Predict the structure.
Amino acid sequence: MSNLTHLECSRCSRSFPPGRLYNLCPCGGPLLARYDLARLRSRLRKEALGGATLWRYQELLPVARAENRLSLGEGGTPLVPARSTGERLGLDELYIKDESPNPTGSFKARGLCLAVAMARELGARKLAIPSAGNAASALAAYAARAGLEAHLFMPRDAPESNIREAEVYGAKLSLVDGLITECGRLVEKGKEREGWFDVSTLKEPYRIEGKKTLGYELAEQFGWKLPDVILYPTGGGTGLIGMWKAFDEMEQLGWIGPDRPRMVTVQAEGCAPIVRAFDRGEEAAEEWVGGDTIAAGLRVPRAIGDFLMLRILRESRGTALSVPDSEILAAMRRLAQEEGIFACPEGAACLPALERLAARGWIRPEEKVVVFNTASGLKYLHLFSVSSQTGRQP
C-alpha cells in the first residue's frame, strides 16, 4: 500500500491521479508526488523507523507493492565530522554527507532506485536516460535488478568508468557528440518510436522521491534538527529540490519545526547557469552556451528545475557560487589529505566555495554546516596522472 494521493505540477499546480506513467505536466512543469501527510502524522512515528536503506521511509515513498521495492543497499550513508577542515576554516561543526558508499558509487542510486521501481510497478519495460555519467550507471544497475531494458545516452567524453559500468550491466549505450542537452534531445526524439519511458532528471515524478531521502537522513542523523547551512553541487538540481520537499513534509508530519538551512548551490565556472541567473535576480536560467568542466555532473547547460532551484535559494536566504576547475582538482586532494575522503570533483567543488563563504563571514563559526560529496573520487581517476617510477604526481 502507498500513501501517495496525487501528483501536482510544480509550475501550475494542476493535479493528476496516481497509477499511470507520467512525464511532464502539459504546461511543461515537473510533477511532484503528494501524500496523505495528515493521516500519516497521527500514525507514523519517527522513532519507529527501521531498516538500513532508504526504504526505512517507505511510507513516505510512492511504491505500493513490496516486490517492487528494489534495493541494492542504497541510502544510509555516513555523516562524517570534518574536524581538520573545520579547524582550518574556523568552523566548529562542519560535516561531510558522503554519498560515495551508495551502489554504483554515487547519490544517483537514490533517485534511480525509485524511478525504476515505479516504472516497473506502472508497467514500463524500456527506460531511457540522458546522463553525464553517474545517472547512467545507476539506471543500468537498477534496470538490471528489475529486469528492464536501459537505454543510455552519454556524451562521448563521459568518464570512462561510467561507460565501462554501463557495458558490464548490459545496458544499451549510445555515445553522443555533444553535451547532456544533446543527449536529452535524442531521448525525446526516439522515445515514441522506440517505446522508451523517459527517466530524465525531473521529467518523471519519482527520481526526486529517492533524492528527498537525503533530507530525511540529515534530519535523522542530527536528532531531527536541521543544519544551518547546506552546500550542494548542482547540475540538474534534483537533490536540492528533493531535500527542500522533504523538509516541508517533515514539518507537516510534526517531526521538525519551520526553520530551514540556508541552501548554497555550487557550480563550475565553465558551466554555471544557476549561479548566473541567481546573481542577475532572474527567476529562470538561460541555457549556458557550451559547458566545459572536469566535473562531469556539473556540466548541465540547462536544467528543467531551474525555477525551483532559484526559488529555494532565495526562500532559504541562501546563495550560489561557481569555482574554477583548478580549485576543484586541488580540493579533491585537500579533502583526501585532510579528511580521508576521496571526493568526486562535483563534491570537491563545495570546498573552495565553503572557504570563500567562511572568509567572508557569511558562515559563522558556531553554525552547523553540511557539505555534500555526491560520488566517489575513484570514478575520476582519469583526472590524475602518477609516475610509475616515483609513485608521485609529476
About this structure: The domain at 79-106+207-383 is CATH 3.40.50.1100 (Rossmann fold). The two ends are 58 Å apart (CA to CA).
